[in-house]
Write a structure and sequence with these properties.
Blueprint lengths: L2 H11 L3 E6 L5 H16 L3 E5 L19 H7 L2 H6 L12 E5 L11 H6 L3 E5 L10 E4 L5 H11 L6 H14 L10 H12 L4 H10 L3 H12 L2 E3 L2 E6 L1 H7 L3 H6 L1 H4 L7 E9 L2 E8 L5 H7 L3 E2 L3 E7 L2 H23 L1
Parallel strand pairs: 1-2, 1-3, 3-4, 4-5, 7-8
Antiparallel strand pairs: 6-7, 8-9, 9-11, 10-11
Helix pairs in contact: 2-7, 6-7, 7-8, 7-9, 14-15
C-alpha cells in the first residue's frame, strides 16, 4: 500500500470531528462523494458536518444524508446569537480535527470557505481534476473520469467496508460525472468500479430515475429554449443564460448544467460553451470539447481548469469584452489541433 493511504487512514482514524466540503456550483460528483464519505464516517461514530457554498439541486434529494448539508451553518445563521453579535464568521472551524475537500480542484472553488480551509492545519484533498493545485496538506488526486472513482479506489485500498448507502452515493457520483458512462475519458476501470458498486448494493435504478430520467415541464421547456438559442461561430457553439431568463423560465442554474450534454457536439462544433450569469459582472462558464481539443488549456488562461474535454472558468466585468478573449483562446486551440490533424 502506498504511503498516502496510510497517511489518510491515520488522519481519519485520529479525528473525531470532521468537516467535509465540495465546490461551488455543486454537481452530483462532489455531493455524491461528500455524502458517501459522510455516511461511512457517521456509521463509524464520527461527528461530521457538511459544507457547500451553493444551493443544492433538488434532484440529489434521494441521496442519504442530503438533509444534513449546510445544516450546522443554517442553524447558526438562524440563531439569535448571530443576529445579536452580527457575526461574519459563520462557523468556528477550530473545533474540528480534520477538513476534507472532495471534487474541488482549487481553493477558490470552495467559495466562502477558501480561507478557513487554507489556514487549517489538518486538511485532505480528494479529487480527479488534472488541474488540481494540490492545496491541502495531503492530496489524493487521481486523473479519473470522476471523483467517485478516486474515492472508491481509496475505500478499496484502505480495505474499508462499504454499505449500500455509501455504494449508492458513489455510483451516483460516477454515473453523473461520466454522463451515464458516455464521456471520452472513461476507462475500463470506470465500468469495473460501477459493477462492483452494484454488487455492493448500489441502487442504480434509483440513481438513473432521479439523475437522468425525471424532468419537470419547466425543465423540458428549458431544453427546448437551449436548443433553439444555441449560437455557432467557427467550430464553437455557445449558449448564454441570464438571471432574468432563469426567473422567466422558472428553472435553476443547476438545470442548465444538467442539460448541457444535450446541446453539445451539435453540427460540426468542436468546442461547446454554456455561460451562466451568477450576478452582475460575474459569469460561470462550462466548456466541453471533442477529440483532441483541450478546453482545460483554454480554461487555465482564465484561472479555471478541469480535464482535456471538460473544463470550467469564470469571467468578470464586461462580459462581451471578456468573452471575446475566451473565444480567441478557443479558436487558437482549434487552429493548433486542426493543424496537427492535417
Amino acid at each position: 500500500m502506498e504511503k498516502i493511504f496510510y497517511e489518510i487512514k491515520d488522519k481519519i482514524n485520529n479525528a473525531n470531528r470532521i468537516a467535509l466540503f465540495t465546490h461551488v456550483s455543486c454537481d452530483c460528483d462532489g455531493i455524491g462523494c461528500m455524502l458517501a464519505l459522510y455516511n461511512f464516517l457517521t456509521e463509524k461514530g464520527k461527528n461530521v458536518d457538511l459544507f457547500c457554498d451553493s444551493d443544492v439541486p433538488e434532484k440529489y434529494g434521494f441521496l442519504k444524508g442530503i438533509e444534513n448539508l449546510n445544516k450546522l451553518e443554517n442553524s447558526i445563521n438562524n440563531s439569535s446569537l448571530k443576529k445579536e453579535l452580527e457575526l461574519e464568521n459563520h462557523v468556528d472551524f477550530s473545533k474540528y480535527d480534520l477538513l476534507i475537500s472532495l471534487d474541488t480542484s482549487t481553493l477558490g472553488r470552495l467559495g466562502k470557505y477558501e480561507t478557513d480551509f487554507k489556514n487549517f492545519e489538518e486538511t485532505i484533498n480528494i479529487d480527479h481534476h488534472i488541474s488540481n493545485t494540490n492545496y491541502a496538506k495531503i492530496n489524493y488526486v487521481k486523473p479519473y473520469s470522476s471523483c467517485g472513482e478516486a474515492l472508491f479506489e481509496l475505500f478499496i485500498e484502505l480495505g474499508l467496508e462499504i454499505s449500500q448507502d455509501v455504494a449508492t452515493c458513489l455510483f451516483a457520483a460516477i454515473s453523473s460525472d461520466t454522463n451515464r458512462f458516455s464521456n471520452s475519458n472513461i476507462s475500463a476501470k470506470t465500468h469495473i468500479f460501477a459493477g462492483k458498486l452494484i454488487e455492493l448494493g448500489a441502487d442504480h435504478n434509483l440513481v438513473n430515475l432521479w439523475l437522468h430520467k425525471n424532468k419537470t415541464k419547466n425543465q423540458l421547456k428549458l431544453i427546448s429554449y437551449m436548443a433553439k438559442n444555441l449560437k455557432y461561430y467557427k467550430g464553437i457553439s455557445y449558449f448564454y443564460m441570464s438571471l432574468n431568463l432563469l426567473k422567466k423560465l422558472n428553472v435553476k442554474s443547476s438545470d442548465v448544467s444538467s442539460f448541457m450534454h444535450i446541446i453539445c457536439n451539435s453540427g460540426d462544433s468542436k468546442i461547446n460553451i454554456v455561460i451562466k450569469e451568477r450576478k452582475k459582472g460575474e459569469y460561470r462558464l462550462s466548456l466541453r470539447s471533442v477529440s483532441e481539443y483541450d478546453v482545460n488549456k483554454v480554461c487555465s488562461v482564465f484561472g479555471g481548469g478541469g480535464h482535456k474535454n471538460a473544463g470550467g472558468c469564470s469571467l468578470y466585468g464586461n462580459f462581451k469584452k471578456e468573452f471575446k478573449k475566451l473565444i480567441k483562446e478557443c479558436l487558437k486551440e482549434i487552429e493548433a489541433v486542426d493543424l496537427k490533424l492535417k
